[in-house]
């Protein structure tokens, strides 16, 4: 077994690999760029080596720099994580030439399966059903348009060396094919150093289901069930679960056996994933094989108890698999939510900055779960577990140079319904401040009827949120619980204020029982009757709710018990009440005395400023190009400029017809959120 391994990656996956290496008694070496000198993975590793400037194409994906770090540290093996060099055969060859083990598949398998064009050809030759498409390289945008017409719109334009949603575009017409080809090519070159592009038919309304395989170099291979990855945005997975609520045992077995057969056909040895698209009749088609550890691997670990990182290390060291297919059992249900530094209220655009508050929910051990670096046994019936894989910390920064992932929050429970409920509570308990993030959206998905039924497709987000995410309007029962909670909390805060020192003599402030609570356009007149154990809140219609909590003024997380049911609220103090966040809703809750509430209704509403004649920068980023000039008339939907942030190109388009009056920024300029790029007449 190895004594020291280098992790050729950063962020949460580097931290994840370090945890298993530490459990196995193996020393670890981190690499880091200028932007990551204070990163969590650097402090967790036993050693750390600096490799260059922040951009990945000047540091993390420069093979020579990584090789220098290996020589400097004396590492015997390298784990590539995912992304960066994880599927780069030249990197694996360089390691082999240096006598360093690659904790991944053989070079031949990477070349065969890691390249999406080659993998499809091999799959076709092996008799695997594949999606129609053009497997050859495409030289320019005109050829891309021609091929797209031959295949038939819609088509998917994909980077051959792509992964993680980078270098992917859906085109529905010639203009989008031409535009998407160039953007995909640029993203592919920046992210992978390989700008080759191919095109395939985009299958509408599919499910994205993948099979986890694990093979050794002695000819043994198993599949560890499937992962449902259909909830995606911009071709990047957001929510994953294992097993899939859609598959039956026969389909699972057929997909698993086909995945293993494909892996063995290329002498695969390591953990890998075979991805399929599955239609409504459970027909499945090979999509691609990822010759690396997947981002969503924790859900497989949670239902199988198999540490995939450990198995990768053991296979790379020449060991045989310790399990056979008969040993693989799927226990319970696991769900993963990817927490991204993306603002859902701004079209999920990237958000960067400092994490002024980062408090994940407490990790708990139950089921086959990794907590505190130790794998636990089976969970007692009914218990749930929480796992949080992360690479950040409170006070750290989210950089514009890398993927916007903050953490992967996972829950496990004996049943799917229990796992969903555990996830709801965990999301409500997750405190993140300082940047925009998608916690509200994830909470909304967990409560969506389609997700609850398990009936989602890859079009879920596009279809259910066609105008973007605008927050959640909570049902009446939830609003009443929050109103009662806030009334009880406000009363506690008022009582504390009556006890402030330095009061005027002979002056005593009394706290009343009657309050009016307003939230999300609703108004509730309530009476709060408190005792030592909590408070009973009575509504005008006679209904009552019992509220119990140890919340004290200043706490930003309120954990309450409402008639025996748990309720977790993020509660920030505002004038006359609280800013409350719960289950995807972000609302101002005002708690007033009856006379105050009466007068508040007479206050005029403040209107937002008019920005209809301005193009504002929706995210911090770099302007790649400006497509218009002063005096030019633009049409609705016309491209105005392109902004790059977190390795993704974003095209800003005109919302309506107009004439350009002034351009305030040009290519190469770095902009902050809401900077004015273009002014219109």
TrEMBL record:
Domain of life: Bacteria
Segments forming domain Lipoyl-binding: 602-681
The enzyme's E.C. designation: 6.4.1.3
Any GO BP annotation: lipid catabolic process
Segments forming domain ATP-grasp: 120-317
GO function terms (MF aspect): ATP binding; metal ion binding; propionyl-CoA carboxylase activity
PANTHER family registered for this protein in UniProt: CARBOXYLASE:PYRUVATE/ACETYL-COA/PROPIONYL-COA CARBOXYLASE, METHYLCROTONOYL-COA CARBOXYLASE SUBUNIT ALPHA, MITOCHONDRIAL-RELATED
Record has Plastid as a keyword: no
Annotated protein name in UniProt: propionyl-CoA carboxylase
Matches recorded under Pfam families: Biotin_carb_C, Biotin_carb_N, Biotin_lipoyl, CPSase_L_D2, PCC_BT
Key word Metal-binding present: yes
Pathway named in the protein's UniProt entry: Metabolic intermediate metabolism; propanoyl-CoA degradation; succinyl-CoA from propanoyl-CoA: step 1/3
Organism: Ruegeria faecimaris
Domain Biotin carboxylation as annotated: residue spans: 1-466
PROSITE patterns to which the protein is assigned, alphabetical: ATP_GRASP (PS50975), BC (PS50979), BIOTIN (PS00188), BIOTINYL_LIPOYL (PS50968), CPSASE_1 (PS00866), CPSASE_2 (PS00867)
Catalytic activity: propanoyl-CoA + hydrogencarbonate + ATP = (S)-methylmalonyl-CoA + ADP + phosphate + H(+)
Keywords: ATP-binding, Biotin, Ligase, Lipid degradation, Lipid metabolism, Magnesium, Manganese, Metal-binding, Nucleotide-binding
Stored SMART domains: Biotin_carb_C (SM00878)
Cofactor(s) of this protein: biotin
């Amino acid at each position: 077994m190895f004594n020291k391994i280098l992790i050729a990656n950063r962020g949460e996956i580097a931290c994840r690999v370090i945890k298993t290496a530490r459990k196995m008694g193996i020393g670890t070496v981190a690499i880091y760029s200028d932007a990551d000198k204070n990163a969590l993975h650097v402090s967790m590793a036993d050693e750390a080596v600096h490799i260059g400037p922040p951009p990945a194409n000047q540091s993390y994906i420069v093979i020579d720099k990584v090789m220098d770090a290996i020589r400097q540290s004396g590492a015997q093996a390298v784990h590539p994580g995912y992304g960066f060099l994880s599927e780069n055969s030249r990197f694996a060859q360089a390691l082999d030439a240096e006598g360093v083990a690659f904790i991944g598949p053989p070079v031949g398998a990477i070349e065969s399966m890691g390249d999406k064009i080659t993998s499809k050809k091999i799959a076709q030759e092996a008799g695997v059903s594949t999606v129609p498409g053009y497997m050859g390289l495409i030289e320019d945008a005109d050829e891309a348009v021609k091929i797209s017409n031959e295949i038939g719109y819609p088509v998917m334009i994909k980077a051959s060396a792509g992964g993680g949603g980078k270098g992917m575009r859906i085109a529905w017409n010639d203009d989008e094919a031409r535009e998407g080809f160039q953007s995909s090519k640029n993203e592919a070159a920046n992210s992978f150093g390989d700008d080759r592009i191919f095109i395939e038919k985009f299958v509408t309304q599919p499910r994205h289901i993948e099979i986890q395989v694990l093979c050794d170099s002695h000819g043994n291979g198993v599949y560890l069930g499937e992962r449902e990855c259909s909830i995606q945005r911009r071709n990047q997975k957001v929510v994953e679960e294992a097993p899939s609520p859609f598959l039956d045992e026969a389909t699972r077995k057929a997909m698993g056996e086909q995945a293993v057969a494909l892996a063995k056909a290329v002498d695969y040895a390591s953990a890998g994933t075979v991805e399929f698209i599955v239609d409504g009749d459970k027909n499945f088609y090979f999509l691609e094989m990822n010759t690396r550890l997947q981002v969503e691997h924790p859900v497989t670990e949670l239902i199988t108890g198999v540490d995939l990182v450990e198995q990768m290390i053991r296979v790379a060291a020449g060991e045989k698999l310790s399990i056979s297919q008969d040993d693989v059992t799927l226990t319970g249900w696991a769900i993963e939510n990817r927490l991204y530094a993306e603002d859902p209220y701004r079209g999920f655009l990237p958000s960067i900055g400092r994490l002024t508050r980062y408090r994940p929910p407490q990790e708990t051990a139950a089921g086959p779960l990794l907590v505190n670096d130790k794998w636990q046994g089976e969970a007692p019936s009914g218990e749930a577990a929480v796992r949080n894989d992360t690479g950040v910390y409170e006070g750290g920064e989210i950089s514009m140079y890398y993927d916007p992932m903050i953490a992967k929050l996972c829950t496990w429970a004996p049943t799917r319904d229990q796992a969903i409920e555990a996830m709801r509570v965990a999301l409500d308990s997750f405190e993140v401040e300082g940047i925009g993030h998608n916690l509200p959206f994830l909470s909304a998905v967990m409560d969506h009827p389609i997700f609850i039924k398990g009936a989602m497709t890859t079009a879920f987000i596009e279809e259910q949120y066609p105008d973007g995410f605008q927050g959640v309007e909570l049902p009446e029962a939830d609003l009443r619980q929050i109103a009662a909670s806030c009334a009880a909390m406000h009363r506690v805060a008022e009582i504390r204020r009556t006890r402030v020192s330095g009061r005027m003599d002979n002056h005593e402030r009394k706290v009343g029982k009657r309050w009016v609570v307003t939230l999300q356009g609703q108004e509730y007149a309530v009476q709060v009757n408190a005792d030592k154990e909590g408070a009973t809140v009575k509504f005008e219609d006679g209904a009552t709710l019992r509220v119990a909590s140890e919340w004290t003024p200043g706490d930003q997380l309120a954990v309450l018990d409402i008639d025996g049911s748990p309720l977790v609220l993020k509660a920030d103090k505002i004038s006359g009440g609280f800013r409350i966040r719960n289950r995807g809703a972000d609302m101002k809750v005002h708690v007033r005395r009856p006379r105050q509430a009466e007068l508040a209704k007479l206050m005029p509403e403040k209107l937002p400023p008019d920005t209809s004649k301005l193009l504002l920068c929706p995210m911090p980023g770099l302007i790649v190009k400006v497509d218009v000039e002063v005096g030019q008339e633009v049409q609705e939907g016309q491209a105005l400029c392109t902004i790059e942030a977190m390795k993704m190109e974003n095209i800003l388009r005109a919302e309506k017809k107009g004439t350009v009056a002034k351009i305030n920024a040009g290519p190469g300029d770095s902009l902050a959120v809401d900077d004015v790029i273009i002014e219109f007449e």
